[in-house]
Amino acid sequence: MNIQRLFKRLKPGRGAVISIPYFWLLLFFLVPFFIVLKISFAEQDLAIPPFTSLMNLEEGGLLHITLNLGNFDFILSDDFYAKTYLSSLQAALFTTLMCLLLGYPIAYAIARTDPARRNVLLMLVMLPFWTSFLLRVYAWMGLLNENGLINSFLLAIGLVDEPLPLFHNNFSLYLVMVYAYLPFMILPLFSHLVKMDGRLLEAASDLGAGPIKAFFTITLPLSRNGIIAGSMMVFIPAVGEFVIPELVGGPDTLMIGKVLWNEFFDNNNWPMAAAVATVMVLLLIVPIAFLHRFETRQLEGKGNE
Amino acid sequence: MVDAAKQSASEKPYLSITNIVKKFGDTAAVDGVTLDIRRKEIFALLGSSGCGKSTLLRMLAGMERPTSGQIILDGQDITRLAPYERPINMMFQSYALFPHMSVADNIAFGLKQDKMPKGEIDARVAEMLDLVQMRKYANRKPYQLSGGQQQRVALARSLAKRPKLLLLDEPLGALDKKLRQQTQLELVNTLEKVGVTCIMVTHDQEEAMTMATRIGIMSEGQLLQVGTPAEIYDYPNCRFTAEFIGDTNLFTGPVVVDEPDRVEIEAAELGGRIWIDHGITGPKGMQVWASIRPEDVRVDRDPVAAGPNAAKGAVTEIAYFGSYSVYHVKLGSGKVLKAMVPVNRWHEANLEPPTWGDQVYVSWRADMPVVLTR
Ligand SMILES: Nc1ncnc2c1ncn2[C@@H]1O[C@H](COP(=O)(O)OP(=O)(O)OP(=O)(O)O)[C@@H](O)[C@H]1O
Ligand SMILES: [Mg+2]
């Protein structure tokens, strides 16, 4: 009752505060998306910008709207694109799974240490962000190269006779992907795990559940939202990743980011690139919207608390 | 008292805690507790905050490793067993219900760990839900329940496995006062119906007095006194117990007369002697304390015969409690004595009740004070 009254009094201010994130999303997500969508329906043109406009006001007041569906048609008909989307999703999925498998124990361990040491460990997780992302990928190149640090060392101590194929293949691709995205998995997982009430585990133990059983019946289900958040933080950017496959991936690595780059800069085909991007966004948004609805339903359930 | 002693001698203890110690760093949270609990007893550990009650309970549950000592339950040494290996269940102060499970799943959790067949689990869960009258709420999640309902689910969950020993840490601590009083009786009824041996921790003495068959008073990691509520109230064995359970007036002084049939204590604060109608064992001149309950103090407006167990003072405060009032009487030494006076005391004697500043005379019978040596 009291809280409702309080909210009522705050209403004008509250509306303004709530509108800020919506405004942000509109400006930096929805508007750019519609620009991309618009370009995807255009045709390539030798002009600046290099595409035709959709609307032409002709003499006599006739408005011509030209929607070119050819790009989408091409994407759907040429199975090169289907393969690329699939392999991008696959790579992102694998990266997400690896990040989860590695990140969960790390996040769990950090959440269970005493608060003083916890901050140091969190700092270590975030430390890579202090150097440029590109620099870190180049560092990996220096490590994995045929005559890079690792191979030179292995050759020098005589463990191998010829350099190991560590570079420009799927191994190096996934290694660097997992390396780059791991912090994005650890941080949301940590923030969920650290909030967990230790007494729940004591209660589980008291009721006869050993540590492993307690982990799977209590800790894991209760950190579900952290797993979802971390997985999205890794999966979504990983699908469109360009730099890592370009720099450390193999010659036959198919990633949608690379295709986008080619269409934009090599073929100068903006409408095609825009269509590729649009399809990718749709591929990502549909499952996320589904997840989001699921989440809000859960939250609404909790509203009775 | 004789009865209880006889009973405890004849029946061998069900749970036996021997000289148990728990140290956190250098400080001992539990400092050498020895305690025997009988089968089907409801035992309350009572003490002020931080005295080590929870730590003792957690050692019984297996959540803390004792630094030294031994715990034997029903003939089995459980000192070093992990919590999930002990036939003991605990109801947590905050209930610790699993938020992602329904009421029924919470209750079934422990049974599933024992690999009980599904049919039996369902039957037991239904039985437990009936026991705590929560059948209607079987499919609710904990956050959809009120505090009192959560408490009942927590109780059902801790009873579901039919533990040999039930531990309750401040079982009603999270409820408001009114609900707590109502729940006390309900809880005792449930525990008696199930017939479980039970140790509960509380810092509410009223709760301990109403619920427990026996009480243990703890202070600074040590068990000071164990007994039935009446024993502890009537015969406290130390100053801490006397002051912790109920209210009391303490006077100190040396023993000046020690005969088999009486003791006299020279109490400076009283400005006279305290006379007690039984002997004590101890050297003459020993410093002792006499505890006199406020309800044993008589207040008069007219002078009483001078002598032991009497003094004169001025009323400094009157607290009215309906059927009785508590008078604070300031003695010549500056010590304030509390006296509980029934409301009809003055009316029956046809007297005007004394008010603030009035001169009154306080006294008590020689069989009332309890002599304490520590
Ligand atoms: N894990 C721990 N590490 C260090 N000291 C602890 C720990 N647990 C308890 N203590 C200390 O042990 C002492 C006893 O604590 P305990 O929780 O047993 O008290 P309590 O009697 O249950 O008090 P309360 O009525 O406030 O719950 C306290 O001084 C406390 O600070
Ligand atoms: Mg406690």
TrEMBL record, chain A:
Give the UniProt subcellular location, in the record's own words. Cell membrane
Query: Does the keyword field hold ATP-binding?
Result: no
Q: Which Pfam families does the entry link to?
A: BPD_transp_1 (PF00528)
By its UniProt entry, which PROSITE patterns does this protein fall under? ABC_TM1 (PS50928)
Boundaries of every ABC transmembrane type-1 domain copy: 85-291
* Cytoplasm recorded as keyword: no
The UniProt entry lists the main location of this chain as membrane
- InterPro entries recorded for this chain? MetI-like (IPR000515), MetI-like_sf (IPR035906)
Which residues does UniProt assign to the signal peptide?
A: none
Alphabetized, the UniProt keywords read: Cell membrane, Membrane, Transmembrane, Transmembrane helix, Transport
Record's bilayer topology term: Multi-pass membrane protein
The transmembrane residues are 21-41, 89-108, 120-141, 171-190, 226-244, 270-291
- What's the family? Belongs to the binding-protein-dependent transport system permease family. CysTW subfamily.
Protein name per the record: Spermidine/putrescine ABC transporter permease
Q: Which organism is it from?
A: Vogesella fluminis
Q: What is the lineage of its organism?
A: Bacteria, Pseudomonadati, Pseudomonadota, Betaproteobacteria, Neisseriales
Automatic annotation (TrEMBL), chain B:
Q: Does Transport show up as a keyword for this record?
A: yes
Which SUPFAM superfamilies does this chain map to?
MOP-like, P-loop containing nucleoside triphosphate hydrolases
Q: Which SMART domains match?
A: AAA
Fetch the Pfam families from UniProt. ABC_tran, TOBE_2
Reaction catalysed? ATP + H2O + polyamine-[polyamine-binding protein]Side 1 = ADP + phosphate + polyamineSide 2 + [polyamine-binding protein]Side 1
**Keyword field contains Cell membrane:** yes
InterPro entries from the xrefs?
AAA+_ATPase (IPR003593), ABC_SmlMolc_Importer (IPR050093), ABC_transporter-like_ATP-bd (IPR003439), ABC_transporter-like_CS (IPR017871), Mo/tungstate-bd_C_term_dom (IPR008995), P-loop_NTPase (IPR027417), PotA-like (IPR005893), Transp-assoc_OB_typ2 (IPR013611)
Enzyme nomenclature, EC number: 7.6.2.11
Domain of life the protein comes from: Bacteria
Keywords of this protein's UniProt record, alphabetized? Answer: ATP-binding, Cell inner membrane, Cell membrane, Membrane, Nucleotide-binding, Translocase, Transport
- Per UniProt, residues of the ABC transporter domain are 15-245
User: PANTHER family attached here?
Assistant: PUTRESCINE TRANSPORT ATP-BINDING PROTEIN POTG, SPERMIDINE/PUTRESCINE IMPORT ATP-BINDING PROTEIN POTA
Tell me the subunit arrangement.
Answer: The complex is composed of two ATP-binding proteins (PotA), two transmembrane proteins (PotB and PotC) and a solute-binding protein (PotD).
Main function: Part of the ABC transporter complex PotABCD involved in spermidine/putrescine import. Responsible for energy coupling to the transport system.
The entry assigns this protein to a family as follows: Belongs to the ABC transporter superfamily. Spermidine/putrescine importer (TC 3.A.1.11.1) family.
Q: What is this protein called?
A: Spermidine/putrescine import ATP-binding protein PotA
